[in-house]
Amino acid sequence: MEVKVLAMLLGSVLLAGVVLTGARPAYAENYTCAATLDGSQEVPPVETDGAGTASLTFDSATNTLAWEIEFSGLSGPATAAHFHGPAVNGTNAGILVDIGGASDVSSPMTGSIVVGSNSATYLLAGQMYINIHTSANPSGEIRGQIACEAVGEMKTAALTYGEEEHEIQYSITNGTLTELTGDADNKMITAQISAAHDGELKIQLPRELIDSAAGEQDLDYIVFVDEMEVYAEDDFGADVRTLTIPFTEGSALVDIVSASPPAAEPGLPATTHTVSVAGANIDIAVRSSSTITAFSLDEGSKTVSFAVAGEEGTPGVTEITIGRVLEGPYTVMVDGDVTTDFEVDESSGESVIRLTYVHGIGEVTITGANVVPEFPLAAVALAAAIVGVVAVTARYGKFSFLPK
To answer: Cα separations (Å) of 150 from 31, 304, 332?
Structure first.
């Protein structure tokens, strides 16, 4: 996956629906369940154009089972619908719940009922199925085995990140993970999922593996679902951050990207650029891995501008003692795009802005509130690590983040 970062290189899953096959775990109280109905699952199979889907929830604290079942294409109107069990795919079993007795048998069927402990055990063990009957097929025209997953039950997924293998804790509702990959160079985790219905992924990210922070300041991870940025809840734990990421039915790809700036680079080449303020020449200290040209100050617009150049596609870093000529607050633009996502380091006594980017951009402009009227003669030390302006360009376009 190709990720480009403008003004801050992106520093740097998800898995899925599991059919329970054992006894009911005592610690899990809420479950989401699903089934796909067709004639091929009937015993014996039935040739029909009928098909359906079922979404269910189960509260093990109260043994309440709720359902929404949709179907179409039957040979005629449904005459009955039942939950059957205990039975695995390919075998038949007796009726456990008369769905038609608790809800209408026309699509969609919705309803709920309190089931007995045996039925609850069958349900969570994957040994319950839905059977919809018609006059042409009185034993059942379409059938679907029910698979349940505990909401909030954490599972373990293997992730290769850099040169090392890691275990990631996660839970997912109404979906399954087909692939989980890591990109340590861009501080990103990508998961391919199959989402049968709207749901959410909860994933635990160890800070030592992939944090999103600038110094001691936590930053939001940047999260995409199918290339669209989404908001993910974050618990900001001390050692592990837990993200809750919503997705919609049919979603296929989730990207989680760290917004951490790259580490400071103390060996940046230093240059001096001279600007004129009220007829006086002022030297501006700049450190950069790029070639800096066209450095100028426009007193009228209170703007410093310069061009950066380097090998296309490689990361670049520029640090500028902007406080020598401009007072904040500051507005930064990269190739005409405005961003408010930057911080200024004033620990040295003067404001220093540090920008990181991918070469391929052109002009950077920094606008202040005022031109500084007086300038100290002594040189000032540059900050080693400052959070900069961030604009990330990836296959999904540009996005930004704000510190929490």
So the answer is: 4, 57, 47
Spatial distance between the Cα atoms of 182 and 188, rounded to a whole number of angstroms: 6
The 3-state DSSP class for residue 234 equals strand
* Segment 110-158, tens digit of pLDDT: 999 999 999 999 999 999 999 999 999 999 999 999 998 877 667 888 8
Q: Which residue has the tokens 């103390």?
A: 266
User: Could you give the CA distance from residue 92 to residue 297 in angstroms, rounded to a whole number?
Assistant: 82
HSE-up of residue 196 (Cα within 13 Å, Cβ side): 22
Phi, psi at 75, each rounded to 5°: -70, -15
Q: What is the DSSP letter of 3?
A: -
Check if the beta carbon of residue 20 is closer than 8 Å to that of residue 28: no
Residue 109, both tokens: 């069927």
What gap in Å lies between CA 124 and CA 98, rounded to an integer?
19
What's the alpha-carbon Rg for the chain, to the nearest Å? 29
Closest by CA to 244, choosing from 183, 180, 172, 179, is: 172
Where is 249: in which H helix or E strand?
Answer: none
Q: What is the pLDDT of residues 361-396, one digit of tens each?
A: 889 999 988 887 643 333 222 233 333 333 333 333
For residues 351 and 340, give the distance between their C-alpha atoms in angstroms, rounded to a whole number: 16
Region 10-17+152-257: CATH code: 2.60.220
Q: Given its phi and psi angles, is residue 118 left (phi above 0), alpha (psi -120 to 50 degrees) or beta? A: alpha
Phi, psi of 296 (to 5 degrees): -150, 160
Q: What DSSP designation does 301 have?
A: T
| CA 340 to the chain's CA centroid | 22
- Fold designation for 30-150: Immunoglobulin-like (2.60.40)
